[in-house]
Design brief:
This protein is of the alpha+beta class. The protein has seven helices and six strands, in the order H-H-H-H-H-H-E-E-E-E-E-E-H.
Length: 146
């Protein structure tokens, strides 16, 4: 996939960053979406909608989960086929995974955190078969307060 480097003013970057935060995506993905809307002559995968759906689905999870447990993430292949989108499922899942991780890190997915495990007295991020494991902190709090 080709890469493009942009040199823009700080003022323009700040405006783009503000708009991207509002959509809960990174600046890079926001710019890519804008370019695809402007120049794309084909149906493209709506990453903004997908990531917002994934965050909402994550907030309903009752236990630790991996992204494959979320219906939007699991259904990527079906959406690509249905809308004849010319991207590979692996490419879309990779981008969604990076976007979800970024949303969790930046606090855009309130209540969702990486699950941790203690090994030899040190907390580490938990993973299952190399997939990041997340947890719904809000569900844990509700459960503990009962």
């Amino acid at each position: 996939m080709p890469r493009v480097n942009l040199a823009i003013t700080q003022e323009l970057y700040d405006q783009i960053e503000k708009a991207a935060k509002k959509e809960k995506v990174t600046v890079n993905y926001y710019i890519c979406d804008m370019l695809e809307e402007r120049f794309g002559k084909r149906t493209v995968y709506d990453y903004t909608l997908a990531i917002n759906n994934m965050i909402a689905e994550a907030k309903t999870m009752k236990a630790e989960f991996v992204l494959a447990d979320l219906p939007t993430f699991a259904g990527v292949n079906d959406v690509l086929i249905e809308y004849e989108i010319k991207e590979s499922p692996a490419q879309v899942r990779s981008r969604l995974g990076k976007m979800f991780t970024e949303a969790v890190k930046k606090g855009n997915a309130k209540g969702i955190e990486r699950a941790v495990i203690e090994r030899n007295g040190v907390e580490e991020f938990k993973s299952a078969s190399r997939a990041a494991v997340y947890c719904n902190k809000l569900y844990k709090q509700k459960k503990n307060s009962k």
